[in-house]
Amino acid sequence: MERMEHIGTYAVERVLGEGGMGIVYLARSRGGRAVAVKVARPELARDPVFRERFRAEVDSARRVGGFHTAPVVDADPESETPWLATAYIPGPTLSDLVTTRGPLSEPALRSLGAALAEALQAIHQCGLVHRDLKPGNIVMAEDGPRVLDFGISRAVEGAGLTVTGTSVGTPGFLSPEQAEGRPVTGASDVFALGAVLIAAAGGSPFGEGTPMALMYRSVHQEADLTAVPAGLRAVVAACMDKEPQRRPTPEQLLDAFTADGIVSPLYTPTAVVPTPSPQPAIPHTPAPPPPPPHRPAVAVPPVPVSPAPPVKAPELLAMDRKNAIVADGHGIAFNRKGKTLRFPWYRIWNVDRTWAGRELTVHIGLVDGTLLSCKVVASTEAELFHWVSKLDAVVHRFRLAR
């Protein structure tokens, strides 16, 4: 996507960030106010269902005001590339804050949890589900955390689109039902809130690894709570429950985080007396070197060569409530009723697949003659054929390239 100079009436200053759904720009209104403008990717813009849902989400997002989020100030769902403008909230993201200052203390985690629960309460009351709550989407403003970046994610999910290299949500923070492609409710945001608190405490909910591996763990493994202070571990564990109906509501989380009636502020404003800035010294400019004795008649500048964009390696995650199949650059893994078997490509002689109805069975033969198989059931025929296509691409890329 090319850099834009104007989006609607807003003058673009710089790129704030880029993700699978689009690019976020820092821009200025004609009156000089700073706004953050998110522009959808061209492949999304070409889908009429996306535009219809995006329009509805913008209308809902306008109702989420107050101090919970960055208020929506403008949008154009009919533009060649639809965009959404919100007030620009200065401050570090929670991700940046933890990286630079370290994990939050237990009182600060309680305050963060209460603020995020209150934000989700406001979002859900407007009929929205965020779907991508994570440390990078939370700005730690002076007056408290602000939740950003909702609207496009739900429109993408509702349109049934798959954007190359992306998923709706962020692996490591998305809920099991998102990973499995099941219906999503506000309980998914509560799961993400628990994962955010683990990250803010200095932990990693499901460790490190590829997006496929993180999605797999969110469904089949328990979150790592060791970094969470003991006093908060029970409530965070409740947020991370695999079953959506067993997770607490934002209202119940507010009660839990404010049980003593006191919430410590994450920031303590301090009066600062400005001091005059020293005048910068005038730099010394050396005299230019003398010209060469023989100047070429025509100067031919070197031609810059732009590197080709990296091609994302194919990978597969196919799973149901009992079994899972993962195929990527490392090999193939079967998870059958909680037991995981991993096979690197150098051990695999042959890969075959069969399907009937919505049931996919993957068969592998090892170089030592061992034969194994694993079966998963898709939620729809479209998902089944997506799995088959992904598996074929992985096998063609890695096994045949041995």
Automatic annotation (TrEMBL):
Annotated PROSITE patterns: PROTEIN_KINASE_ATP, PROTEIN_KINASE_DOM, PROTEIN_KINASE_ST
Domain Protein kinase span(s) in chain numbering: 10-267
Keyword terms of this UniProt record: ATP-binding, Kinase, Nucleotide-binding, Transferase
Biased composition (Pro residues): 275-295
Entry keyword Kinase: yes
Pfam families for the chain: Pkinase (PF00069)
A molecular function GO annotation: ATP binding
Residue ranges, annotated region (Disordered): 274-295
InterPro entries documented for this protein: Kinase-like_dom_sf, Prot_kinase_dom, Protein_kinase_ATP_BS, Ser/Thr_kinase_AS
SUPFAM superfamilies the UniProt entry points to: Protein kinase-like (PK-like)
Spans traversing the lipid bilayer: none
Residues bound to ATP: 38
Superkingdom field: Bacteria
Name the UniProt record assigns to this protein: Protein kinase domain-containing protein
